[in-house]
Amino acid sequence: MPRIAKPALVAAASAPFAWLVYSAFFGDLGTDPVETIAQVTGTSALVCLAATLAITPLRRLTGWNWLIRLRRTLGLFAFFYALLHALDFFVFDHALSVASILEDVVEHPWVLFGFTALLLLVPLAVTSTNGWVRRLGGKRWQRLHRLVYLIAPLAVAHYFLAVKRDVTWPTLFAIVFGILFAARVGFRLQARGPARRPLPSVSGEG
Amino acid sequence: MLIRRPPDLPAREITEERLFWNRRRFVGAVGQGIGALAFAAVTPGIAACTTGETLAQGDDKLTPYEDVTGYNNFYEFGTGKGDPKENAGRLRTRPWTVAVEGEIARPATYALDDLLRPFPAVERIYRHRCVEGWSMVVPWMGFPLRDLVWRLEPTSKARFVECTTLHDPAQMPGQRSGILEWPYVEALRLDEALHPLTLMVTGVYGRPLPNQNGAPLRLVVPWKYGFKGGKSIVRIRFTERQPATTWNVTAPDEYGFYANVNPEVDHPRWSQARERRVGELFRRKTLPFNGYTEVASLYAGMDLRVHY
């Protein structure tokens, strides 16, 4: 893996957060800072999530197997931004009132979908370490992390329901995730084709 | 130009227009907020009090000019909040004509300045509540719509007043998109149009309306969600039947004809019980009729859950 790869990725993934912090103290978060924070953190979470799903297709296309070593970092950044996004909502929309938050979760699907996506990200974040991969075993770890195929649509649905009328961005993400999912399905079908010998599955493979 | 200040909101916080966004304001507000939250965390039931319920209705500070004129929903210029300010430069507000039509004594087309001449502008400081859940306090300059209505002599068949926005994609690039049907149409029941609070607006903060706020003529109905206030009006029509209004046509289960601010009637997708006042970090309680309870009598006997 090129030595620059991971630091470059961390720098790029941290940039939105750095911008938010800088703007809060020295710049301008806009007329509705709570909304600005929500949009930046939400978009960043979705981008990082999409990037984690793009790793394996990219690997197959380029032959750069070291890309897999970036996936954990990306996944954790996705969780980080999702957490900030949720905190923005819990703190500024609900003043950390559990009753108020739960009422919103129960009454409004856009909140339910986002909340569920966040909850499902937690076990993925917790088990992201090598220790957990060993503890669970490759196959079980892999199955757990397939939750991402539930998390991504939940997050996109959350976005669709939250916008007033202009669905441009949610649609864009839906298309991106659609392509990434299709790529994964495509690769699996390819691997199972009759012309190939069955290969032992490799832990950590997408 | 005479400027009277009627006593609907205290004008004690008239700030200079050039009140700039204090870059430290967010940080300061967070600091105070963290203190309040720490207290609230220790005493659970108090959480509600930190969100603004303890603020009296009278504590309505003017929203800074930069925010009033830089954070707008005016899809004719794009759907981003900053798009109207960026793109509304193309709008030519003079010469401007307003066609007055329908159930009135003498339908005609007026040059804007001729239409406005009999009505001296006054300043009215109103709360402005968007259906999206944010709100501002805005010092509009305008005159009561009812003065214009009386002058136009509606016939006995006139039951509604409809306002239509300019339709010209060359000046309004957002109209090339099909996100809404153009032109933008809004309407009021005649008694709503005759209510003293309903304002035909030509200025803000003592100056002519910037294009992004709906220059040169817009409607403001402070007890309704902001989308009821049509901007850049070119036609005022008096009708017998209830007109089809743009957001109601676009999403009838989400946006009604009446669109009265009502914390008890949620938008299908989000709650209307609380709102974020621009400049504040935590949400405050939304008031019935946006606090203008004097209009309640207009809706006596109506189920406002049905007529949302």
Keywords:
heterodimer; A: 206 residues; mainly alpha; 76% helix; 0% strand; B: 308 residues; alpha+beta; 7-stranded mixed sheet; 5-stranded mixed sheet; 12 strands; 21% strand; globular
General description of the model:
The complex is a heterodimer of chains A (206) and B (308). Chain A is an all-alpha fold and 206 residues long. Helix content of chain A is 76%, strand content 0%. Chain A has helices spanning 5-26, 33-62, 71-93, 98-107, 109-126, 130-136, 138-145, 148-162, 168-191. Chain A is globular, with a radius of gyration of 18 Å. The mean pLDDT of chain A is 93. Chain B is of the alpha+beta class and 308 residues long. In chain B, 16% of the residues lie in helices and 21% in strands. Chain B has seven helices and twelve strands. Classes of the chains: A mainly alpha (206), B alpha+beta (308). The A-B interface holds A 24-35, 91-93, 95-97, 100, 104, 107-110, 161-162, 164-166 and B 21, 23-24, 26-27, 30, 33, 37, 40-41, 44, 47-48, 50-51, 66-67, 70-71, 75, 79, 81, 131-132, 134, 179-180, 250-251, 266, 269-271, 274, 276, 278, 281-283.
Structural topology:
The complex is a heterodimer of chains A (206) and B (308).
Chain A: H1 5-26, H2 33-62, H3 71-93, H4 98-107, H5 109-126, H6 130-136, H7 138-145, H8 148-162, H9 168-191
Helix pairs in contact in A: 1-2, 1-3, 2-3, 2-9, 3-5, 4-5, 5-8, 6-7, 8-9
Chain B: H1 25-42, H2 65-68, H3 83-87, E1 97-102, E2 108-111, H4 112-116, E3 122-129, E4 134-144, H5 145-152, E5 160-165, E6 185-189, H6 190-193, E7 199-204, E8 207-208, E9 218-220, E10 233-239, H7 246-250, E11 274-277, E12 284-285
Parallel strand pairs in B: 1-10, 4-11
Antiparallel strand pairs in B: 1-2, 3-4, 4-7, 5-6, 5-10, 7-8, 7-9, 11-12
